[in-house]
């Protein structure tokens, strides 16, 4: 199987301080990957390097087996879509217009949208249960709905790879599960590679094929949830003691902090 994303020994810094150090990893096509790590450990910076918003100081990135430097932005947008953490929309667009923006890599300049664009937008909205919201302004909907609209716009790009930066951090538990179930369905049924940052260790363990655990700009561990989320790794990275509890209907142990 080929790799959706290959990151080869990249380094990145915003100023003097190195924010990513020697990041080396391969993400298989069709995988569901969660990136975990404390605040400031470099998760967002890594995603921004992968989607070409930032350029590594050293090292190389391949997307869909092509050197990222050699993929034009419009081409990249057909392969990879990103739902950023702070996808603020400051104008009075309708939900429908926002999802239609996802079609831009396929549209010719000064041409209006095609029948195919309309069909794909409708499908993306049905998939994310946002079709009923289509005439509302983006400001009139809830945080959970907005998150689904941002994902719908990403799906309108018909990507093979979907990057999500903390897609559930603002949501209540029901909406968190809804978004993760949606990602899982897109992963399983549409074969979209999912790469998402998350804060909830247990949800990450439950939904992901693989976990990337970051610490201070470096990879602490990458692999199956049960091999990465050990007591020792969590203690090292988060500095807290945890207990791993085996639950009957969970493949992976449930992780709870030990109260002092
Ligand atoms: N635009 C920026 N300019 C300067 N430093 C930044 C910028 N964005 C992030 N950083 C710094 O880079 C480090 C990693 O940040 P980030 O990738 O956002 O971490 P995470 O997403 O894991 O919380 C932090 O120390 C943060 O302060
Ligand atoms: Mg972040």
TrEMBL record:
<feature type="domain" description="ABC transporter">
    <location>
        <begin position="5"/>
        <end position="241"/>
    </location>
</feature>
<dbReference type="InterPro" id="IPR017871">
    <property type="entry name" value="ABC_transporter-like_CS"/>
</dbReference>
<dbReference type="GO" id="GO:0005524">
    <property type="term" value="F:ATP binding"/>
</dbReference>
<dbReference type="InterPro" id="IPR003439">
    <property type="entry name" value="ABC_transporter-like_ATP-bd"/>
</dbReference>
<keyword id="KW-0813">Transport</keyword>
<dbReference type="GO" id="GO:0016887">
    <property type="term" value="F:ATP hydrolysis activity"/>
</dbReference>
<dbReference type="InterPro" id="IPR027417">
    <property type="entry name" value="P-loop_NTPase"/>
</dbReference>
<keyword id="KW-1278">Translocase</keyword>
<keyword id="KW-0547">Nucleotide-binding</keyword>
<dbReference type="Pfam" id="PF00005">
    <property type="entry name" value="ABC_tran"/>
</dbReference>
<protein>
    <submittedName>
        <fullName>Iron complex transport system ATP-binding protein</fullName>
    </submittedName>
</protein>
<dbReference type="InterPro" id="IPR003593">
    <property type="entry name" value="AAA+_ATPase"/>
</dbReference>
<keyword id="KW-0067">ATP-binding</keyword>
């Amino acid at each position: 199987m080929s790799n959706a994303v290959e990151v080869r020994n990249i380094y990145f810094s915003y100023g003097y301080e190195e924010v990513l150090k020697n990041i080396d990893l391969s993400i298989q096509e069709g995988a569901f990957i969660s990136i975990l790590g404390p605040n400031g450990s470099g998760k967002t910076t890594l995603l921004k390097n992968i989607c070409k918003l930032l350029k590594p100081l050293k090292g190389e990135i391949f997307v869909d087996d092509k050197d990222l430097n050699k993929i034009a932005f419009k081409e990249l947008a057909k392969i990879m879509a990103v739902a950023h953490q702070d996808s603020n929309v400051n104008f009075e667009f309708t939900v429908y217009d926002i999802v239609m923006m996802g079609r831009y890599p396929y549209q010719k300049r000064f041409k209006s949208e095609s029948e195919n664009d309309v069909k794909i937008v409708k499908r993306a909205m049905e998939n994310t249960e946002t079709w009923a919201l289509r005439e509302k302004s983006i400001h009139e909907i809830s945080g959970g709905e907005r998150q689904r609209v941002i994902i719908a716009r990403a799906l309108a790009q018909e990507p093979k790879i979907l990057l999500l930066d903390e897609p559930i951090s603002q949501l209540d538990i029901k909406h968190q599960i809804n978004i993760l179930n949606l990602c899982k369905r897109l992963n399983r049924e549409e074969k979209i590679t999912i790469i998402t940052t998350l804060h909830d260790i247990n949800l990450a363990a439950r939904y992901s094929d693989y976990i990337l655990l970051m610490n201070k700009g470096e990879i602490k561990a990458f692999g199956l949830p049960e091999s990465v989320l050990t007591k020792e790794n969590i203690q090292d990275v988060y500095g807290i003691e945890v207990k791993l509890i085996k639950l009957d209907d969970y493949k992976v142990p449930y992780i709870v902090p030990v109260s002092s």
